[in-house]
Amino acid sequence: MSGTLHLKLQDLGEFKLIDRIRQQVVNGSGVHRGIGDDAAVVSLPDGHHLLTSTDLLIEDVHFRHDWTDCETLGHKAVAVNLSDIAAMGGTPRYLYLGLACPGETAVEDLNAFLTGALAEAEQYNVTLVGGDTCRSPGPWMISVTIEGSTPKHQAIGRDGAQPGDLIMVSGTLGDSALALHLLRDSKEPESALLARHHQPKARVELGRQLGEQSLAKAMIDISDGLASDLEHILQASQVDAIIEEDKLPLSEVFQQHTDTNPALRELALYGGEDYELLFSVAPENVAEITALSAEINLPITCIGVIQEGSGALSLQDKTGTARPILVRGYDHFCRS
Ligand code: ADP
Ligand code: MG
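A: This is the predicted complex of the input protein with adenosine-5'-diphosphate.
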């Protein structure tokens, strides 16, 4: 947009900005009132429960402008939210965007962010129906809220895992954390790793199908790291788990790095932002999981088993020896 090339938010003003956002949005079929009123009015399919999830993205906490462009950031802001709806076995539907940016922000940067966010939402027929826009005294602060739905009583919580269930995970682990590790080390990650970090794909279709077919008994998306997020399931379900080190699904690029530096392997256990789905399945449903994996063309790997207990997690190595593992995912307030 050449006319807006050097325009700043403080020149454009809040209302013109909101109007521009509104003009870019095409309301989906469940939207009765979208952007432009005091509240959005939307509907859900009959017999569904509403799912709602919110995430905050703060500049220099969650992202750095020198490591990502604004359009990619828009994609990621929405993708991580879609992932939360997927983790409940739901269908994402409506999006709300809270934006706080400094007045000096270039309008083209914000446009790029919106382009990314709207494109990501559109892939899943999700409509942006509202939000709020303010000036920030410093960092960009982005609040993304998503609403989705599931048929009543079919949402998949973290508390449904039972002894004997198999522990399954989609995709591969540790790629995003490895990209971040290399960036922090001022190295250039391979494009496959960078994509996993900057453009995570929410496993929306997998989550929805697991919900619809009642295949997952407990589920979470991996945002803080496999060990940390599995522990949430174990605590909520009051069970133990044992996972096998050899079975963790690793990408080829990840393995090339760990071949030269084996210490990096622990990123598969503790690294965050994979946005894969981690879920427990009754052993009799394994065939359905295999079929689903083939149908949606997404690898699903069995990495361990749920046992009786009260929240302990063990890791079994190649020799068959199991040891308790220390859970240390990312915690915003504890940096130890
Ligand atoms: P209010 O004064 O009631 O907060 P606003 O003027 O902030 O209303 O917002 C007007 C309309 O624009 C509302 O429908 C609101 O949801 C929408 N809106 C404001 N900011 C955004 C945004 N960043 N993204 C999407 N919709 C927005
Ligand atoms: Mg407002």
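Residues 132 surround magnesium ion (ligand 2) (CB under 6 Å). The chain is about 35% helix and 25% strand.
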